Every structure is written in structure tokens, then in C-alpha cells.
# Entry
Amino acid sequence: MILIRAERPEDIPGIFIVNERAFGRREEGEIVDRLRESDSEFISLVAEEQGAILGAILFTPAVLESEGREIAGLLLGPLAVLPERQRQGIGSALTRQGLEFLRQRGCPFVVLVGHPEYYPRFGFTRASAHGLVCPWEGVPDEAWMVCILDAEAMAGASGVVRVREEWGAAL
# Structure
């Protein structure tokens, strides 16, 4: 049985391996480690089965400055699952449980750069349709997405979303 739970210190090496294998490169795992070392606020969940880390999802701070107010939300990424365990619902379970946790905590929005065929099933839509501008140049409009968790808090908000500078290295 697969358990979705919060990251623990002993999970860190397994999370790095999952990211490296899922993306075929070390950059995502290195960024996650840098975020952890920088004492950044983050929410990290893992999918575990019999003590093995099969997948991981990370949420880090994102701030929308809109009309003289700041709205604190989160950036989803990376979402990673071991290649041999992909297409078994692990990534979906991590995403759904992560978003539900954030909704319960009152998070108004979650942004991401991701596959436009995958993330709409979780409520993500083009961020540009909500007036949210990507902090990075060259990201395709359809890949810059948002999931609005609190429509009231986001009413009338628009502008550039600021994220942790560590993410610039991934793009």
C-alpha cells in the first residue's frame, strides 16, 4: 500500500534519487536541496511503499503583487515519480493530497510550469487567463498554469508572480 505523507529528514536522499531518475538529470534534486538548505518555507510530500520513496512533490513560496497588496501562494514543482512506477496514479495522489492540504490551510493559489495535458485534471488552467504573469521569459503560455484555491482572495488580482530565485536554474 502506498502512503502519502510529509517529508522526513531520512527521506532526503530518496527524494533526490526520485527527482534525478524522473527527470533524467540532477538539476531538480539540486534545486530542492538548495531550497531546503536556504531555510525556505516549503511543503514536501512523499509517496512511500514499504519504506521506499516512489515519488515526491514540493510546494514553495510564490507571491503575487497586485494593486498594492501581496497575495502569498505557492509554486508546485517538482512533481516526480520513479520511471518504473509512473502511470500508476502516484503523481496524481501526491498532487490531489497536496492541493487539498493547501486548500484546508487557506492557500489562495498554486502556480506551476508543467504539461498542459496533465495538470488540468487537478483544476489548473492557463495563468494568463487570470492575469498572472510568469516570472521567466520564454515559458509557453499553455505551460504556465494556476489552480485557484480561494476565488474570493484572488478576486481582481493580477500581475507577475514572484518565486524563489533557485527556480531560475531549472528553466
Observations:
- The beta strands are 3-6, 43-49, 52-66, 69-81, 109-113, 125-126, 132-133, 144-148, 159-163.
- Helices lie at 12-23, 27-37, 90-104, 151-154.
